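cron nightly-structures :: item 1 of 1
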Amino acid sequence: MAADTLLERITDYANRPNPYPLYAELREAGPVVPQADGSYLIGTYHEITALLHDPRISADPRSRGETMHEPPFLRLDDPEHHRLRTLAMRPFGPPHSPGRIDAMRGEIARITEELLAAFDAGRQVDIVDDFAYPLPVSVICRLLGVPREDEPLFRAWSDAVVASADVTPGEDSTERDRTGEQARIEMGQYLVDLAEQRRGRPSDDMLSAFVNEPDPALRLSRAELAETAVLLLIAGHETTVNLITNGVLTLLRHPGHLEQLRREPGLLPQAVEELLRYEPPVHMRERIPLADMDVAGTTIPQGTPVVLVLASGNRDPKRFQDPDRFDPTRPDNQHLGFGSGIHLCYGAPLARIEAQAALGALIPRLGTARLVQDPPPYRQNAMLRGPRHLPIHI
């Protein structure tokens, strides 16, 4: 087939279970592949990495003329992106030192065990609905300081927001979009109101840290606080659900490595990094050139959508030896599972800890587990690729 239909084929739901042959076709077609819809696809590791670090390329959809409210900071460019990201990261603790997320390890382990307590041998469970989906919602609610009795609210809001980004091609998504936007507004309002209750009466949670910042120059506005708290919930949730679910699916497809990790649990952090390369939670990111750019000999015009296929870069044989092989002991694994550059995933540290805790607790229970359906049913979303359900018999 023609290379200029690659994006159409990658986003075709029929290819969701296995887009990797299309990614190989993309890399073979060249570092930069123009598409019939006017966009450009890039699927080679070194070109993707260079562009993720290039200030001439924008994450802000307004740079191509879209009109919208102020985007969340992950869709902004520096210097505004840097200001908001720095303020949002402060409650996590200083970079490269133990902080609030590390302190959550015990709580994450407890939530994990609570969820796994319902996994009785001899029955069927859905790894998504029964485990990978509720875990990050509970963790982030505890991190933000949401009372436990209100956690069901966040599951309902999160359902609505995630569903609004997961639309079937050809479907009228107007009502779903409206419901998702309303859920975002309600969630943001709730979090701001909860933070205000902590003003002057702080607890050991992130909302308290945000609202009781002593330096006026370092405080988030009410709107920024709402957007940042919602972003933490949604971004952290999306990546973690896919990372855990893809991880379980991959290990059940590779029983030898599953047994290896059962015998050598110390390999788990390295195995999670390999899962981020081999079956990443985020497959693509769109960027916009702020000026005409030459990329590997191809001129990409200003304002033209550029789709960086991160998951293709993760399988680039020019960067990774035997890239289609899952290897939990792979060295030098500088994958693109969380992106790179200034927009490196905001929730990455938390997602790593959650995935390690979740898989570490699950692996001993997967000895006789089998997949009920392979491939499982996938979500519609091609950018945030992962199974919608993963039924297994344990």
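cron nightly-structures :: done
The mean pLDDT is 87.
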